[in-house]
Each structure stands twice: as C-alpha cells, then as structure tokens.
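fyi for ur records
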Amino acid sequence: MLRQTTITLFMIIALITLCWASGFAGSLEPLNPPGSTMKTLDQVQPWTDIQTLAGDANATYIINKSGAYYLTSNIVGENGKNGINVMASGVSINLNGFSLIGVSGSLTGIYFEEDTRDGSVNNGMVRNWGQNGIDASNLTAVRVTDIISDGNGAYGIKLGSDGLASKCLVRENSEWGIAGQNNCLILDCVARDNGFGGFRLFSGGIIKDCVAEANTSVGISMHYEGSVKNCLVSFNGTGIILEKSGNDVRNNSCISNYTNGILLKDKRNRVDSNMVATRSSGTGIKVEESSGSNILLRNTVVLDGSAVAYDIPPGSGATYGPIVDVTGTGDISAVSNANHPWANFVH
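which gave:
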C-alpha cells in the first residue's frame, strides 16, 4: 500500500511539473539564425602589410597614413630609392623579425619625412643600405627598439629630438652607429666597428648601459648637457669625448682606447668615478688647454707602458681631487691623500 502511494505521489509531481513547463516556457527555436561571433583579422590585429603598399620614384614603399604597419617577408632595396618612406605622423613599424636589405646604389632603409612625429620602428634588421639604415632625424618623438643596423653607407640609426634607441646593435656602418639630436635616450645598445664613431648626442640626452667597441675615431661623443653612465668603452680611437659643456660622465669603464680614455674639450663638465685602463701610449684622462671650469673626482687610471694618466694643463681652469699614485704600494691606506674623499688614483 505504501509503495503504491509513493508511486502515485511521484506521478502527480511529474504531471504538475509538465503542466507548469508547458504554460510558462517559451519556444526553444531561435527567432533568427545565430550570427558570427568571430572577429575579423583587422579587428584582432589592426596592422597593415607594408608590402601591399605602393611606391614611387623615391621609395619602394610609401606610408602616408597614421597607423600600425608590419612586414610579412624581407624587403630588398632598389637602386636610387629608399626602402620605406614615412610621410605621416603616428606611424608604428614592426619589422616582425624580417630584414630590409639594401643593394648597390640604394639610399636609406627607412626614411621619415620632415615634420613627422610620434613614430616607432622595432624588431628586425636593416642592412647594407647605401646611406642610412634608419633615418628618423626629421621625426620628433621616435622609438627604435630591438633593431640590428649593420653595414650601411653612413649612419646605422639617426634619431630626431626626444628620441629613444633601446636594445639595438649597430655595427660596421661607415659613419656613426647611433646619433641623436635633443633630449634623446640611448639605452642598452651596442655599437661596434663603425667607421667613425659609436654613439653621438647633441644636447640634453643620456647614454646609459651601452657598449662602444672598436669604433675608428670615437666611442661616445656628447655635446651639450648630457650624461654618460655605466658604459663599457673599449678599443676605440678615443673612448669618450665631451665636445661641449655641461656634461656628467660617471661610472664608465674606458679600456684600451688608442688615444685618450676620456677627453674634455670644453667647460662645465663633471667626470666622476670612472675607470680608465690605457694602452702602452696615449692618455687616460685629458683636459684641453683653456677648456674652462671642469671638475674631476674619484677616477682611477691604470697605466700601461709609457701612457700618461692625467693630462691637466695648469691653464685649463680645471678643478680636481688630489691625484694619488698607488702603483705597487699594496695596502694604500698609508699613502698620503689615498683616503681623501675626492682622490683620483693612478696605478
């Protein structure tokens, strides 16, 4: 009797549930066919393939609209042309791991026209162009990152004002590796075997954590109000040249440069806490005659052969901490002035 009552109760509940569903549930059939939920490629990655663009008599490809652009394969240059001419502001170029390869008689790999601003180039190689690898000297606020610029006929990378070059390798370019105008940053870059110099900035910039090696004339050149910090500068003609005034040079290692480790040519510069190891001739730190009010503190020059440690003419106007020779002394604590807080050492 109990079992029959239980079965009857379950049947009543099932009947009530079915009636409720029939009265309140809507149709399961969709009113319209389901639409696509997939995004287009342009929506996912709104970039333009540079190799779909037209060129002209001056360039293989022309970018004349703001936006993001990329490569899908290598670009080979043409005689008498730039590889890519950028004629608009707000252009970002991702080389996507590919190369722009110049040929005999080619011009510049990537050239930014006058009065452009806010651009970037990253992630690839630019090599063997007849003039410059990347010329952004007309571009205000440019960022060049993760670029190899190799074997070009003039400069590896040229920056305009407010430019940034980061994690770039510039080598075997005929003139400078990287050169910038006002208020530029060059960070974590390597300049090697360039025909004239490694890095050059004009005014108000910073070169930091870089390597300049085996550049023919100059490793690093600063003009006005710049800073050079934590760089390794070796086997160049002169390691660091301060062409003009107001520069701060600290914590660099200038090793085996052929002429001078650090050369001061003008006034109001501070050279502090650098290590210079000379070759068998030349000068560790040199201040030119009548250059003016420079200050030299806490530097160390390690001599080889007949090299000169510090060349500071009496008429130069320089101010410096005591120059203390600690060669062969072992414990230097007993050497006169060795504990002076501003001492410059010779070893």
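Confidence is low (pLDDT under 50) at residues 18-25. thats all i got for now
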